[in-house]
Amino acid sequence: MDLENRNELPNSLEEHWMPFTSNQDFKDNPRLMVKAKGVYYTDHHGNQLIDASSGLFCSPAGHGRKEIRDAVYKQLEQLDYVQPFQQGYNGSFELARRISKHTPEDLNKIFFTMCGSSAVDTAIKTAIAYFKAKGEGHRHHIVGRERGYHGMNIGGISVGGMVANRKTFSSILMPNTHHLRHTHLPENTFVRGEPETGDYLAEDLERIAGHIGGENIAACIVEPVAGSTGTLVPPKGYLQKLR
């Protein structure tokens, strides 16, 4: 394939191993996107497809936005990269300041990572390190939730509740992880918005604390709205009770 003509099929589909994909089926019938604009992808056959999920939920501004492209180009011209150990870039401090304006007052420190998986593992390590620095090294238990998805790093799989992922890597999962019950109740299957019933499931945290000792828990992690398991909206009052 001529890289200047990306509408062509690649010379080979064998070398690239794709995540969460039946690779052999894909090679037999490849679906390749060659460009995008607004909410539409265009495949190598010229068909347009609506990007209804914003990629992996990360491109809600749409594709091909001129103002975004120009801002990226301008930044690359000025400074493409600076390593963050013992030095920094003024733009990253300004971005952190702006983000902190949209978070609760007691969540005002920003740590940048490359993806959600590394963010979760960093959060787990930060929680454990925080209590260790306070002289409470016994706080190393982490509570997650059934059907939760927190990425594909070992920490995220350990606190997550995706059964297939946990089975595959069961021999190397983190110890001292515990799981709340999920909130997908049969009576809430066709409910719009926040279900009226199910907030009592947050009391699972008290049950776990009673079993292992609340003084040994470093953190509890749940998705406010579970995504990869089927877009599960929490019952009314659930998150408030959990917090």
From TrEMBL:
Belongs to the class-III pyridoxal-phosphate-dependent aminotransferase family. SUPFAM superfamilies: PLP-dependent transferases. This is Beta-alanine--pyruvate transaminase. Pfam families: Aminotran_3. Keywords: Pyridoxal phosphate. GO terms for molecular function: pyridoxal phosphate binding; transaminase activity. GO terms for cellular component: cytosol.
